[in-house]
Amino acid sequence: MQLGMVGLGRMGANIVRRLLRHGHTCVAYDRNPEPGRQLAAEGAEMVSDLPALVATLKPPRVVWLMLPAGQITEAAIHALAGLLAPGDVIIDGGNTFWKDDIRRARELSEKSLHYVDVGTSGGVWGLERGYCMMIGGEKAVVDRLDPIFAALAPGRGEIPPTPGRAGRDPRAEQGYIHAGPSGAGHFVKMVHNGIEYGLMQAYAEGFEILKHADSAELPQEQRFDLDLADVAEVWRRGSVVSSWLLDLTAMALANDPKLDSFAGYVEDSGEGRWTINAAVEEAVPAIVLSAALYARFRSRQEASFADKMLSAMRKGFGGHQEPKKS
Amino acid sequence: MQLGMVGLGRMGANIVRRLLRHGHTCVAYDRNPEPGRQLAAEGAEMVSDLPALVATLKPPRVVWLMLPAGQITEAAIHALAGLLAPGDVIIDGGNTFWKDDIRRARELSEKSLHYVDVGTSGGVWGLERGYCMMIGGEKAVVDRLDPIFAALAPGRGEIPPTPGRAGRDPRAEQGYIHAGPSGAGHFVKMVHNGIEYGLMQAYAEGFEILKHADSAELPQEQRFDLDLADVAEVWRRGSVVSSWLLDLTAMALANDPKLDSFAGYVEDSGEGRWTINAAVEEAVPAIVLSAALYARFRSRQEASFADKMLSAMRKGFGGHQEPKKS
Amino acid sequence: MQLGMVGLGRMGANIVRRLLRHGHTCVAYDRNPEPGRQLAAEGAEMVSDLPALVATLKPPRVVWLMLPAGQITEAAIHALAGLLAPGDVIIDGGNTFWKDDIRRARELSEKSLHYVDVGTSGGVWGLERGYCMMIGGEKAVVDRLDPIFAALAPGRGEIPPTPGRAGRDPRAEQGYIHAGPSGAGHFVKMVHNGIEYGLMQAYAEGFEILKHADSAELPQEQRFDLDLADVAEVWRRGSVVSSWLLDLTAMALANDPKLDSFAGYVEDSGEGRWTINAAVEEAVPAIVLSAALYARFRSRQEASFADKMLSAMRKGFGGHQEPKKS
Amino acid sequence: MQLGMVGLGRMGANIVRRLLRHGHTCVAYDRNPEPGRQLAAEGAEMVSDLPALVATLKPPRVVWLMLPAGQITEAAIHALAGLLAPGDVIIDGGNTFWKDDIRRARELSEKSLHYVDVGTSGGVWGLERGYCMMIGGEKAVVDRLDPIFAALAPGRGEIPPTPGRAGRDPRAEQGYIHAGPSGAGHFVKMVHNGIEYGLMQAYAEGFEILKHADSAELPQEQRFDLDLADVAEVWRRGSVVSSWLLDLTAMALANDPKLDSFAGYVEDSGEGRWTINAAVEEAVPAIVLSAALYARFRSRQEASFADKMLSAMRKGFGGHQEPKKS
């Protein structure tokens, strides 16, 4: 199949690469010409603007956007909507808010354009491992695009099949699903990221407890000086907490056992926040996912106003004078 | 009544003062002679060691310990146990772990000594407002000591009576209760402090949300520059969140609206921790009380290992390079 | 002053009553004629629809809406906007989402109508205690309405003044503030309610720990059978956790010590949810306020899907067969 | 090597089996003769009491206890201590509290007996997958027992090696580590379980959000009816949240998509609780691990006293009458 790609950051470029390797044809555009040079050498056809992209693609066209979510993606969709023809498809593979998908699909349908939202997991490993995709949109359109998704997906690989799946959608075992109508793809991806935050925080807290097992707050005979790299490694085999995140943790600790190369400042992306908003909307008690997000917020604060409030109250009722942070 | 006081820190000294003002007699000891000088001028009889204290008190003696919980209190009790006579009473008014009370009461009863644990709230305001006391021990002993407790307690004051309390223990309205057998006093005081942490954190989070209502993360037209001192003040009258902690907050913000005099480093005492341990033992889901304690732990960390773990994982799966903390 | 009131639920009717008692004039409307009958006897002028309300009021008119937030309030504002004249004022005293206030103020200003949002705390006690009000809107308009707010506010009462407030806005000590531009009133009220949730949950968890101090999970000699009504009462005097919520708790426990009249099903209103959304938008770690909200969500679930997931995993890795809930 | 096994529950019996299959010799005892019948047929030598076990084993003896933690294990160790000879080894492979390990090792060393604590993960899958083991004790003793541990461990298997481990302890890659002195094994296993709780809760909350994506609390056009079995399956390949727990979740959902076979009542074991206690002792903010434990506590409550408290307060300040749970 032929696909147009807009946005050649790491994700976009590697998606093009993986498609090319699977025999698909790609026309690509990025406002920065740099990343396209290498891709051209690998077989992609580079164009210099959106009109050229649309002109080059054969109808019905399929244009995949891999751009920062928000205004940049919104503007690109608006521009494409003025260029594409009825029956063409826009895929948004970025980290878009699912309610924006619902709105866009409705707006584009008025021009007989199709919109498909693809939550894409895989990060820097996707080129090699394949991309796990959660797809939202009209069934007929998603079915039509199946060769694209099948090529990008990881496939069954060496992962053992799940017993009891006979008769179920075989795409899930290949690493992609049609989750539902517009927005469903990004909704499922959003929750994926929310869970990711929770899993990461669970490991992080556990390893911090291991780390501080030699804390001076403990009696001398109850302290342990544990080798965290070995702990992470041993849990990779036969334990209940084995996971890909643990694999990555074991790698990080093997190379930097005290993680001195990190400052402890942790960003968060929209999905973690939207997951909490969704939980609140649904009245689901998502305390762990919320706590995981808040831990990131807190990591970025030097001295929080809330903490100063606590000190002020303690001084008020008890005359406690808190020490200054060193 | 006559009371022996061991430990003349702010709490101990003010307890002596309040008893003297109510016509009681006090013999007092502190290894540091300084705080006793002023108390002697106010009518306390100062002694220079524990044997002198015991020799000076008339049997059956009542000795109140107001010392740092843990080893110092434990040692004083051990020393007193060798000096006192059957029928004498040791009161521990400090912040002792309630299981220690249970053990001590059992040990002292073998020498026919009585042990009373008094959880004492009031801080620097106790001399003026009176002390809220939660008492554990044998009924006959607690009853015998009633004149002491009645003098120390705040009394009904101008606080409106609670409807429906006819027939209930009138001491609660005076600001002290006999909570139960040994340990019950400190247990109730422990939970009091656990709640205190939760209340403080609730205010602290709320005021931080108000504070950051002008955050650059928000759209310009949705930002507010709120006067936190006025907000705290207005809530003192007619709102659902009025409390003594809010009164103290209003004072602090009136004098230091940005709380610049605080570094955001917040200590915790044993009671907050023991409250969590008690919740875990009882299988009670105390998430707010736990979160309040953990916020204090976090306030004292510069860069947490947990946060570095998160950054290490993010780098692992997404190639994210976190910014360094400024 | 003359005020038009739309909505005569408990809050609306009592606001009218309090204004009448302070010598103000009220014209009132509710689609249900019942609540107005008694108010008419107390001096309010009742009208039968919005046009009559507008016709009766003297310009510049002031119309206070005390209606359920959301569509009902929105529809009333839309209707009034078509009836009122330039310079007239609409006050929304309900629990409106603050971003709706910002939008409405902008829309109404195009018709030279003024909009004032008033977060109103006081509940069933407001008639007697007065209403704590957090006000958003244009300064000149809020100033013009001052007689109304001054009458509704609790006033200084017997609450001791906060030291250090010399030179600050005296309205805060009377129980009302002009918090900022449109939306600021409801924003502050929203956070008030968020804090309220946190405070309530802190008490609730603490009392549950006290309640289960006699749990069979504990060793026999470490159990206490505590009188929760007395504990709540004693903390009202001299303790750090005294508050109005504690006063209410003491009343409830005095009359129903085991709270058998409650099923443990707890509603939440929009403000608690919006507070979390605001925290997420501002990147403020509001873990206690979130946990308090989630506890209410959880209280309304019989058997949560999340819990079933846990059991399913436990069965998967350990063969654990969870007992059925009785 | 020759090993004595005490306790032939599922774990104990399968450990014997795995050792026999690897050419080791086992003498086994359980007070219930049933489980031993099959094991005898597989090559284990069954004995009828502890003295017979000791008499049958050749010195220096190695006795592995696989019994319920607490009094039962404690009693068995006490009995064995009276039977074994200097130089013999007791291994506790159960879920023992790590501070008990420290105490026992000290007590047994007075009789020149060695004590090794082995945190063992693997559950019902251990016979097939091998057991992940975290070992505490004296280096020379742990080294001497290496053939046992090597046989029980999963081995490298098909799990890709972690780059950068050259020069590190090769046992970690085989699935077992010598974590440190006595107690270190169970300490690391405890934190493993604490993390396990956190991971499970993160998945559980995420899937509950997916589940309720069709909640009637949401606007009609924003609802999704998601196939959770397919979502779990798709995340197994190429996503960031892939893990063994997710594999198990996919199995459970494939066979029981609504998890109707579960009541939502979730047990917890000691390790989750001890992890929280350790965090509190170390002053590590373990909010996610705590929340995960508390969710289990909550799952076992019908109507919590805390929730009734909330309703009582709401009635107090707002006259809210909560609906009864159906």
From TrEMBL, chains A, B, C, D:
It comes from the Bacteria. Residues 185-321 form the 6-phosphogluconate dehydrogenase C-terminal domain. The keyword Plastid does not apply. Pfam families: 6PGD, NAD_binding_2. Gene3D superfamilies: N-(1-d-carboxylethyl)-l-norvaline Dehydrogenase, domain 2, NAD(P)-binding Rossmann-like Domain. One of its GO terms (biological process) is pentose-phosphate shunt. One of its GO terms (molecular function) is NADP binding. Its EC number is 1.1.1.44. PANTHER family: 6-PHOSPHOGLUCONATE DEHYDROGENASE (PTHR11811). NCBIfam families: gnd_rel, PRK09599.1. Belongs to the 6-phosphogluconate dehydrogenase family. This is 6-phosphogluconate dehydrogenase.
